Amino acid sequence: MSQPVSDATPPDAAPVRARDFIREMVAEDVAAERFGRQIATRFPPEPNGYPHLGHVKSICLNFGIKEEFSGRCNLRFDDTNPETEDIKYVEAIKNDIRWLGFQWDEELYASDYFGKLYEFAELLVRKGSAYVDSQTSEQIREARGTVMVPGTNSPYRDRSVDENLDLLRRMRAGEFPDGAHVLRAKIDMAHANMVMRDPVLLRIRHAHHYRQGDAWCLYPLYDFAHPLSDAIENITHSLCTLEFKDNNDIYRWLMRECGIERPPEQTEFSRLDLEYTVMSKRKLLRLVNAGVVEGWDDPRMPTVSGLRRRGVTPEGLRDFVTTAGVSRKPQRTELATLEHAIRNDLNMRVPRVMCVVRPLKVVITNYPEGQVEQLDAPSYPHDVPKTGSRPVPFSRELFIERDDFMENPPKKFFRLAPGREVRLRYGYFITCQEVVKNSAGEVVELRCTYDPATRGGDSPDGRKVQGTIHWVSAPHALDVTLRLYDKLFTVPEPDAGEGDVLELVNPESLTIVRGAKIEPSVGKDPLGSRYQFERTAYFISDPLESKPGALVFNRTVTLRDSWAKAQAQK
Ligand code: ATP
Ligand code: MG
Fold first, then answer.
1. Which of 118, 204, 255, 474 is 20 to 30 Å from 67 by CA-CA measure?
2. CA-CA distance, 462 to 460, in Å (whole number)?
3. What integer is the mean pLDDT of 286-295?
């Protein structure tokens, strides 16, 4: 018999499909051997804050391309601003990239290129392509013109090469105070692109740099340092966000003027922005400094460290940015998209446990006093490819969720009510026989009976109950604190308007619940363990807030999936 012929491509020969316009471009460049060298990208953060979700997008793109096209990716600290940068941010950035599961080829610092950048500056001066301007910064700003009005030439624009070189060397030697002179590219003060109106390349700053100390008093501007740092590192694809679109002209101008062969090329993509939060280190720093949050790693922050403390996994974050995609269309991603990715990831990997958030006591009147039995509860549902179980103690006194009982239930309420029977998850059927109230008329205890024949959750006589509720054994439960997080801002685009974002902070972004009751099995787990609290939400135990015998859990995300619902309705 002849083999059936299949026209399907065997899986290992399947073409690598480009997922976005940048990967498509890189694939073409690789095929055409366009750069004549290995593909190289870089992730270039300024060490002035902690990485946020926008950086995750950039990290996944740059490191993802390195992996997919057998290239290189450098971690380059764009540390050319002595006033705002700090070694603690360098460490945080390295830590977060590693945690996300990426490894850079080289760890580099733009400030280590100050010497090389200075040599490029002299080269430009010698070519007559740069000059020393001695106007004040205000005069320079005024002479730039506007989009409608061309700028005017500086009176220092036609200085001789020798004079420029002499001044530049003396600037370098520290002879002048801050602001006395700057080095500018000599391009065109009437250029349609304002960035090209003789941009400033070097400025004098007598400031202490966290890495270079006092070695330099000449500091390069972004438009000078960034393109040439790419060139120095033999980068091929310099990927950045759309706000640098206008800077592409100066990028190419510098490559030409400095004689860079097969220069790197800049390509822009849209930033990741997320509803109900802000996404820039500078804006996030304001929240930290104003004390609106407890720090960069506050679980309400859109930072990698905040999301980690919130219980999100690296895979969850990577899935999220993959879903958000890479394009040139500016947009704000829905918060539901992030929550959906987190939920999907945690669903497949975390064990289920029972935790009662607002406890109501239940006494099983026909259960023998002092008796305890260990029920075997599976830790994962059957549709999750993980197995395992834990013992859950059952005894005469239990706690159930206050919300799972109603004295006068409406029609569709299928949980506990006077005279009603429900299933205790993994346990027995119980029936509410009596409601005990305090002098204020509040329900303080339910007296119930159980059916011993229903152990494990089924009745041998085929009797059905409509509700299944979670519970814990009162004498065995651990007392825990829950930190419930909500949106950090009250509006989807807090930084869109003119007003101060601090006034839009959600006053209810954190609710602390004390006295929640959790099953004892979690007591043996290491801090930082993640769970699904059945019927409630995903949580992680917080290593910083927890104390021995007093666990604190952060709510990662609720179980309700509004995103999937919205997709289904589309
Ligand atoms: P700052 O507020 O100080 O400008 P930032 O949050 O913009 O900080 P940078 O250090 O300027 O961060 O950016 C480092 C890299 O990350 C850059 O390549 C930048 O294009 C990219 N990046 C920054 N924000 C986003 C974002 N929201 N989406 C995608 N990439 C981003
Ligand atoms: Mg930036």
1. 255
2. 5
3. 96
Give the chain's length: 570
Q: For residue 561, what pLDDT is reported?
A: 62
SS3 content of the chain, % helix, strand, coil (to 5): 30, 25, 45
Task: Name the band, by pLDDT with cuts 50, 70 and 90, for residue 225.
Answer: very high
Contact 100, 317 (CB under 8 A): yes
CA of 280 to the centre of ligand 1 (A): 7
What's residue 17's pLDDT?
A: 52
Chain segment 101-122, per-residue pLDDT in tens: 999 999 999 999 999 999 999 9
Residue nearest to atom 16 of ligand 1 (CA): 55
Using an 8 Å Cβ cutoff, are 53 and 272 in contact?
yes
* Pocket of ligand 1 contains residue 279 by CB under 6 Å: yes
State both tokens at 359. 């406890």
Domain spans of the chain? 114-222, 273-353+477-570, 355-469
pLDDT above 90 coverage of the chain, percent: 91
Domains 114-222 and 355-469 fall in the same CATH topology: no
Name the fold adopted by 114-222. Answer: Glutamyl-tRNA Synthetase; domain 3 (3.90.800)
Please, which residues have CB within 8 angstroms of residue 350's CB and are 6 or more apart in sequence? 530, 531, 532, 538
State residue 417 phi and psi, 5-degree precision: -155, 165
Compute the distance from residue 280 Cα to the ligand 2 centre, in Å: 7
- Cα dihedral 250, 252, 257, 258 sign: positive
User: What's the whole-model pTM score?
Assistant: 0.92
**Spelled out in words, what is the top-level CATH class assigned to the domain 355-469?**
mainly beta
Single-letter residue type at 469: I
| Distance of alpha carbon 104 from alpha carbon 95, whole angstroms | 12
The rounded Å distance from CA 22 to ligand 1 centre is 18
Ligand 1 atom index nearest CA of 271: 28
Q: pLDDT tens digits for 510-557?
A: 999 999 999 999 999 999 999 999 999 999 999 999 988 899 999 999
The pLDDT of residue 1 is above 50:
no
Residue to mutate, 46, 55, 57, 281, ligand 1, most ligand atoms under 8 Å from C-beta: 55
What is the tens place of the pLDDT at every residue in 549-570? 899 999 999 998 655 555 566 6
Helix boundaries (H) for 106-214: 114-126, 137-143, 161-172
Query: Rounded CA gap, 412 and 495, in Å?
Result: 42
Here the tokens at position 192 are: 């349609």
Cβ atoms within 10 A of the Cβ of 87, count?
A: 11
Nearest Cα to Cα of residue 542 among 556, 532, 558: 556
The CATH architecture that domain 273-353+477-570 belongs to is: Beta Barrel (2.40)
Q: Is 280 in the pocket of ligand 1 (CB under 6 A)?
A: yes
- pLDDT tier at 498, thresholds 50, 70, 90: confident
> Does residue 55 line the site of ligand 1, with CB under 6 A?
yes
